[in-house]
Amino acid sequence: MEVAQLWDCQAWKADGLPLATTSNEACKLYDAALQQYMGWFNDASLGGLEGTMSRLVFADPDFVMGGVLVSGLELMGTGKALADPGLRGNLERLASLVARQAGDKLSEREREHARAIQLFGDGRMWEACLAWERILHAHPKDLLALKFTHDAYFYLGKREQMMDSISRVLPSNVGSRHYGHLLAMHAFGLEENNLFDLAEKAAKQALQMNERDGWATHALAHVYEMTAAPAKGRALMSQTENNWEVCDMLACHNYWHWALYCLEKGEYEESLAIYDTKVYPRLKESAGMLDVVDACSMLYRLALEGVAVGERWKELASATRSHVGDHTLVFNDLHLLMSTLGAQEVSLTKQLTSAMEERRGDVRDQDRVARRVGVDLCRAHVAFDAGNYGECVELLQQVRYDIPCMGGSNAQRDVFNLLLIHSAILSPDPEHKRLARSLLAERDAVKPGSCMTQRLLRAAHSP
C-alpha cells in the first residue's frame, strides 16, 4: 500500500495549516508519515513509517513538527518505557528545537503540539488531550492533533470523548482527502458507546470511499463482536481479507477479531490456527504492543475455555519479556501478566506485580489507574492462576465497574468480564455460583444470542 499525492509547503499553507519549514521535501514526508499513521500501513517505497521518519528528520533537522511526529509516534506506540533513553533524548531535542524558534517563526499551533507531546511524555496524558483539543477548536483540519487525541482518549478509557472528538470536526472536513478515515474513526467511537447501528452505517460509508480502510473494517468487526454476530463477522473478514491485510500495522488485530468469532462459536482449533498462522507470526515480526496484547489475550481466552495451548505460553513470554519493564500502560502490563503466568515465569510475574503495587505518584494518569484497578486486577489474575477462585471473584467484584478507566476497547476488556465469570463458576462458594448466573443474565441481556453465553450458562447451572 502506498501514500497518495503529497503536500508541499504551499499546500499545507493553503489548507490553513502552515508548517515552519522551507523544505518542500520535509513537508511531503510529514504528509507521507501522517498518511501511514492514519491508514495503519507502511509504504515500502519509503521504507515504511520508520524509514519515512528518518528521511523527514534528514530533510530538515530543525523542523519542529517533524520532531513532534518522531516523539509522538514513539509515545503512541506504548512500546517503550517513558524513561527510555532514546525516547527522552528525542523529547529533549524537541524542546531544544522549540526554544530555538524565536519570535513568530513558529505558530502557536505548532508550539501547542510540542507542549502536548511533552505532557504525554511526562505521563500526563489527560493534560495532553486538553492541549490537542485546544488546537482542534481553532484548527479542526489538524489531523495529527485529532489522531493523537483520539488515540490518547482510547488509552485513558474515555469512550465518550473519543467519539465526540471526531463528531466535532466532521463538518469542517467534509470533502477532504481524509474524510473516509474520519468516518472510520467516528464509527469506532460510536461502537464503543454502544451506538451499533450508527457505527455500522459510518463504517460502511467509509468502506465505500476506500475499501482498503483497515480501521473501518475494524470498526465493523467490533460491531459484529459486540452484537454476537460471528457469522457476519467471519464473512466480513474472509471476503475482504485482501483489502485490510495491506494495513499491516492493524492486520494482526483484525485477525484477532476473526479468531474471536471462532471462539464465540466454540471452534477452538480454528482460533488456535489463526493464532499460530497469523497473530503470533505478526507479533514476532513487528514486536508492536497492539500485537503483543492481541496474542496474550487470545491465549488467555482459550485457556479460560479449557483449551490446552501447550508451549505457546513459553514462546509468547519469551517474545514479550523485553516489555515487562516498560510499565507504560496498566492495560499492557495486565496482558503481559497473562503471558508470564501462563508460562510459569515466576520472576517476571513478580516483577510485574511488584511494579504495579509500587506505583505511588499522583501526577501520571497511569499511576492513578494502577491504584484504582491495576493492583486488584493483578492480584485477581495471580489468585486465579493459583486456583483461588473465590479470592479472584472478590477482587474483581470490587473493581469491575471501574475497569474501563484503564483504556482499551469494550471487546478487549471483555477478557476481564470472562475471568470473573469463570472464577465465579469454578469457586466452591455457592454464593459465587449464583453470582455467575446473574452475571450471565447481564451478558445475555446486552448480547442476546451469544453461543459463548449459552455455554457458560450451562456450566453455571451444572452441579
Task: Give the secondary structure arrangement, pairings included.
Blueprint: H1 9-14, H2 24-39, H3 48-59, H4 64-77, H5 85-100, H6 108-121, H7 125-138, H8 143-156, H9 159-167, H10 170-173, H11 179-192, H12 196-209, H13 214-226, H14 230-239, H15 241-244, H16 251-264, H17 268-286, H18 289-304, H19 312-320, H20 330-342, H21 346-357, H22 365-385, H23 389-397, H24 410-426, H25 430-446, H26 451-461
Helix pairs in contact: 2-3, 2-4, 4-5, 4-6, 5-6, 6-7, 7-8, 8-9, 9-11, 11-12, 11-13, 12-13, 13-14, 13-16, 14-16, 16-17, 16-18, 17-18, 18-19, 18-20, 18-24, 19-20, 20-21, 20-22, 21-22, 22-23, 23-24, 24-25, 25-26
Question: In brief, what are we looking at here?
Answer:
This protein is mostly helical. 72% of the residues lie in helices and 0% in strands. The longest helix is centred in the C-terminal third of the chain and has 21 residues, at 365-385.
- Note poorly predicted spans: none
Q: Class by helix and strand content?
A: mainly alpha
User: What is the string of helix and strand elements?
Assistant: HHHHHHHHHHHHHHHHHHHHHHHHHH
Instruction: Report Rg.
Output: 22 Å
Overall number of strands: 0
Task: Report mean pLDDT, rounded to a whole number.
Answer: 97
The tally of domains stands at: 2
Shape: globular
Counting DSSP H or I runs of 4 or more residues, the number of helices is: 26
Protein name: Tetratricopeptide repeat protein 38
Keywords: Repeat, TPR repeat
InterPro entries: TPR-like_helical_dom_sf, TTC38
Organism: Petromyzon marinus
